Structure formats: C-alpha cells, structure tokens
Structure to design on (322 residues):
C-alpha cells in the first residue's frame, strides 16, 4: 500500500517569496530605468534575459518546493522534487535512520534558503549527500543506498521510518530466509531480487561512466564548442569588411565616446567561452559521480555563450548603422 509523506513547507514558501521579491524588484527597477533613458537595445536585452532567467528559475524552485514529497511503495521509495523523481528499490537501501541536526557542511551544487534545501552537500561525518529537505536542524532522515546518500525531512520522521523499516523487512524477507523456504519459493525470491537489482541498475544514472560513452554529455559539450567555432569563423570573415577603427562604446544618449581596434570584437566570444568553461570544468569533475551535474553545467555554458553573442550582435549592428 502506498504511503505519502510531506515535509513542512510553510517557512520555505515565506522565505522563498521574500527572496524572489528582493531579486526581482531591483532588476525590474533597472529595466524600467533603462527603458526611460532610451539606452541601446543590446544592454536592454541583456538585462531582460537576466531578469527572465532569474524569475523563471526562482519560480521553478518554488514549484519544486510545492511538489516535494516522499512516497513509500511495497518495493521502492520515491523522492519527488519538481521534475526530479528518484525511485529507490528497497533492495538498494543499505541504511535508513534518523539523524539530529544541525548539520555542518558546504553546498557543492544546488540551492538553499531557510525552509528549502536541495542539491549536493558535503556534511562533516556523512560525506557527499543529495538533499531534498525543508530543514537541516532537528530530526532528519538519512537514506544510504548502493548509489547515493540522501537527506530528507518528512514532517513525522518516526512514522516514516517505522513504515519504511517494515516495508524493507517485507521486501528483503525472501533474501533473509532462503534455506527455510521450499525450492519454488527460493526461486521466486531469486527472481524478485534479480528484478529489483535490474531496476536499481536502470535508475543509477550516477554509476561511473566514461565521458566518451555518454552521448548526452558529448552532445552538450560539442554544442558549446560548435557555437564558439561558428562565432569565431563569422568574425574572421567579417574582419576584412570593417574599418581599422570601430566604435567601441556609447554614452547613454547613444553618442560614440570611444573608438577601438576592430579586433576587439573577438573579446566578447572569448570572454563568453571562458565564462562558460567554469561550469563545464565543474561538471567534468563531478561527471563520474553524477552525470546530471555535467548536463546542467553544459546547458548553463550554452546560455552564457548566447548571452555574450547577443551583446556582440548588438555591437556589430550598431557599427553597421554608422
């Protein structure tokens, strides 16, 4: 029978909405001010992209907090957080126990504010832990599996652990008493365990995998490299058509107040590439532990490159108008 447990979310929503206002209000004010000063379109586009990205990101975090829950079924535990859904077979759980906070450590990937914690953390005494919790103080549940360690915060930790331990005992019963069963039952138990192990292997996207055997990672990294190559090839073909000196800066009224060498156009994609390289390097270091981190990092790299390319496009467009 399915049992669903929810964390206490009130504080997380209150703090999340306050942080959303603190982030969106200043950016919104800057956007309005820029529109009134008739600033050039490229700068306005940058602020609008940043504003939209942060707004969408934070709204997703609030949605994910709303959907956070922990579900116990006869053969698995499922952790839900937004679009993230981890199904852990009972046979893959090595340990499930209550720990007392506060936990001391660092967040290595993810987000955290009072009442909402998600992502990868490294806690003293526990190592790397994947957290989907609304608290790091008080009673918290630690789930250690064959693939990863999780930290969750059902509102009633005692009731959650009581049901989980009972379900684990039932799921593991065929493996614990094989000698006392008839042959047919032992065979059924082996089939059950084999099926559970196969299910565990199927969901372990964290299992070690060479980068060169990961098609998603290869495609995302190649997309970053291809985008950078296309921009540099375009600039190389464009250079002979430009004068030696080009407008390099404009004041708020739209008047040119500095000229520079045309080669300065290479700076923007170069800076974009260096900025995109930072999350990519972080993703590569974590690829063997959690491939999802590289996927997200490569996507962030693409977004940063597009941001700098949009600035470059606005600069070239203004040069052509002069």
């Amino acid at each position: 029978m399915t049992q669903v447990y929810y964390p206490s979310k009130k504080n997380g929503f209150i703090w999340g909405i306050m942080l959303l206002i603190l982030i969106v209000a200043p950016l919104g004010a800057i956007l309005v001010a820029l529109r009134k000063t008739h600033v050039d379109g490229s700068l306005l586009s940058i602020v609008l992209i940043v504003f939209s990205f942060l707004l969408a990101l934070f709204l997703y975090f609030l949605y994910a907090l709303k959907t956070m829950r922990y579900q116990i079924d006869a053969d698995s535990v499922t952790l839900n957080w937004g679009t993230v859904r981890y199904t852990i077979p009972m046979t893959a759980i090595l340990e499930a126990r209550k720990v007392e906070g506060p936990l001391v450590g660092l967040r290595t990937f993810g987000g955290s504010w009072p009442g909402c914690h998600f992502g990868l953390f490294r806690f003293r005494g526990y190592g790397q832990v994947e957290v989907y919790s609304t608290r790091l103080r008080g009673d918290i549940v630690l789930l250690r599996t064959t693939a990863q360690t999780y930290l969750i915060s059902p509102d009633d930790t005692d009731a959650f652990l009581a049901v989980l331990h009972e379900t684990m005992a039932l799921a593991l019963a065929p493996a614990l008493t094989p000698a006392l069963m008839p042959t047919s039952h032992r065979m059924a138990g082996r089939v059950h365990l084999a099926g559970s192990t196969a299910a565990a292997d199927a969901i372990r996207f964290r299992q070690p995998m060479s980068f060169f055997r990961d098609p998603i990672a290869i495609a995302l990294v190649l997309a970053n490299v291809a985008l950078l190559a296309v921009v540099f090839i375009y600039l190389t073909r464009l250079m002979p058509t430009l004068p030696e000196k080009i407008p390099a800066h404009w004041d708020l009224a739209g008047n040119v107040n500095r000229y520079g060498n045309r080669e300065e156009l290479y700076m923007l994609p170069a800076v974009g590439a260096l900025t995109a390289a930072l999350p990519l390097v972080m993703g590569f270091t974590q690829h063997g532990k959690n491939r999802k981190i590289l996927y997200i990092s490569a996507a962030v790299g693409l977004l940063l490159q597009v941001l700098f390319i949009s600035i470059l496009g606005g600069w070239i467009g203004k040069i052509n108008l002069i």
User: Anything to note?
Assistant: The longest strand covers residues 105-113.
